[in-house]
Amino acid sequence: MAACSSVQPGSAANPTLKVLTFNPFTGQDGSFGPEALAGCQAAAAAINAAGGVLTHTVACQSVDTRGNPASAASGGAKMLVATPHMLGVLGPSSDEADATAPLINAAGIPMFADTGESSFDHNKLPYFWRMLAADDVRSYAMALYAKQKGYLRAAAVFGDDVGSQAGVPALVRGYNELGGHMVINQKIELGQGSYQQQVQQLIAAKPQVIFTETSPQTNATYLAELQQLNHMIPVIGTDVTIQPSWFTAMAGAIGKPAVTQYFVAEQPYAPASGPAWQVFNKNLLASATVPKPAQWSTDSYTMSDYDSVIVMALAATAMKNTSPAVWNASIPAVTTASKEATVVHTYAAGVAALRAGKKIDYVGAAGIIDFNQWHNSGGGFQIDSYQANGDLSLVTSITAAQLAPLIR
Fold first, then answer.
1. Is the domain of 76 the same as that of 214?
2. 240-to-32, 251, 265, 407 alpha-carbon distances in Å
3. How many CA atoms, within 13 angstroms, populate the side-chain half-sphere of residue 124?
4. Is the pTM of this model over 0.85?
5. 364 occurs within a structural domain
6. Contact 122, 146 (CB under 8 A)
7. Strand order in the sheet with 2-5
């Protein structure tokens, strides 16, 4: 369990509060950690500029789970014991959530998870919160987009890891319910030098579109071999494929023109606009600790992680207590819309309203937060394509209302 820190020392009387980014920083999903840490750094800057949390500064600390449940569980236990003055946790991801969420919950530490596993759709852990739609819902968004495009024969090409496989059953079910036919469902071993046999099987099945999520290099190898056989077809990726590392690997393997022509991917709908996003982006771009910060400006997961830290800070401020076991229960109180609540888009505005004795409803960079009884909040999705420079372009959006008939 490797860890690095950007924590600035506080005084003994007024210690710095730490937000731990508990995610993969290495391994096949090594982009998850930097994606979340960028949001944390931007949020910490906004919070500290507004006076901190009850005068405490906030800092971000990264903990590398490596995407491995066993090492994440043992390392997570050590993290919880060895980290004083913890405000909360960003994570865990789908790779290690089943093994580690119960540990973090037992420690009484609120976690804002980026796991998409359906096992948390009816979550009963009081310290678990999820502000993005589950993998099964994103799978329905992919299936619905394919149906809208008229693709009625599809191939599922997903890695054999836990995170990649989490949404496959829902994808198959949703696609079939919409009238599509999954002609082949491949569970790909990651990191192989060639996938010629699997590519030949896919070609023989004659799909019109490929649904996919694997590691960047696995996708690159697979699609390069498909291209060499002159069988490139449209590809719809999960949000995992909207990553700088994925674009770099893919552009190198099949060329930027092919990426821009054939590939789209879904991600939670979070338009890069509005007052909360402007503050998020300003602090993100000003960060001296986030490499190439502009790459995260339109990333819905980074926006959600930013919002998560802001919500932690507002909840603690509302309760006038920095103890996670105390302020955890006030999370709905600062994120629920009501006639009495004042809508705020920044930490500074939220603090000002709370000091004035007002109820608040924080609407963040990623949009409205609406936790249900299982501590889940999620809305619609957007379908994006890559530009030749790696930036994203909005293709279309899939609303929550459109997805509702598929969700059980």
1. no
2. 8, 16, 9, 21
3. 0
4. no
5. no
6. no
7. 2-5, 58-64, 17-23, 86-90, 111-113, 128-130
How would residue 78 be classed by pLDDT, with cut points 50, 70 and 90? confident
Question: How does pLDDT run across 303-315, given as a tens digit for each residue?
Answer: 999 999 999 999 9
Question: Rounded CA gap, 256 and 250, in Å?
Answer: 8
Q: Identify the CA nearest to 97 among candidates 151, 156, 31, 163.
A: 163
What six digits make up the tokens of 283?
């602090």
Q: What is the pLDDT of residue 5?
A: 43
Number of domains composing the chain: 2
Question: CA of 233: how far to CAs of 155, 192, 227, in Å?
Answer: 11, 22, 9
CA 190-71-5 angle, to 5 degrees, is: 105
Of how many residues is the chain composed?
408
In which band, very low, low, confident or very high, does the pLDDT at 22 lie, cut at 50, 70 and 90? very high
CATH of the domain at 387: 3.40.50.2300
Of 176, 93, 99, which is closest to residue 135 (Cα–Cα)?
93
> What range does the domain containing 178 cover?
135-269+378-406
Coil, helix or strand at residue 6? coil
- Residue 263 · residue 385 · CB < 8 Å: yes
Question: What number is the average pLDDT over the span 85-111?
Answer: 96
Give the residue carrying structure tokens 């600035």: 8
Measured between alpha carbons, how far apart are the two ends of the chain, in Å? 37
- Domain ends where: 285, 309, 325? 325
Return the axis-axis angle of helices 216-228 and 196-205, rounded to nearest 10°: 60
How buried is 34 (Cβ within 10 angstroms: 0-12 exposed, 13-18 middle, 19+ buried)? buried
